[in-house]
Amino acid sequence: SSNLCGNVFVGNTIYRTSMNLAGLYNSTVYNNNVEGYIGLGPNSVAYNNTADKIESATLTKDNKNVVVYNNTVNDVVMGCEGSVYNNVINRAVTLNADNVKLYDNIISGTVTVNSNGNEITDNKITSTGDYTIDLGDTSNNKVSDNYLIAVTALGDGSVKGNIENNVVEHNYPLVADINIDASNVFIGQNTT
Q: CA-CA distances (angstroms) from residue 178 to 145, 152, 165, 175, 181?
């Protein structure tokens, strides 16, 4: 494990889950295969990695500018403001920082939001649970234009939590209520 600032970590393979890559401040982490986690601090970027988890930690007052893209991971935890896009995430996403942009990801699990002012758009989220996104008691988050499928709900209906203080709209697939009145239909007869 390393705790370095302003460095570039590239092309490493770390086989033990007890070993991690931690680029705390102003670091770039790319093209690594890590069985453990990749830790990021403010002004850091992680891309083209395979890891168990990518986590940005709350380290200073200026927890901003973390970018996580083109990775294949099991979990992403954002403790810093930033962007998470174009990733394959196999379990879960947790947003602990305000103002995170989560978009264009394929997520096979639940997104848990513990912060405000986030944008969750254009993702494909499928969950084996009862919901895809849990907004908890947050506010000013935008959840729109996502493909959302949970075990018991679809689209907007699969978003749980404080819906009144957040914008949840245009998520699909849409749930359609279709009623068919078949009282005047007989076998062998055409209907219009």
A: 23, 18, 30, 10, 10
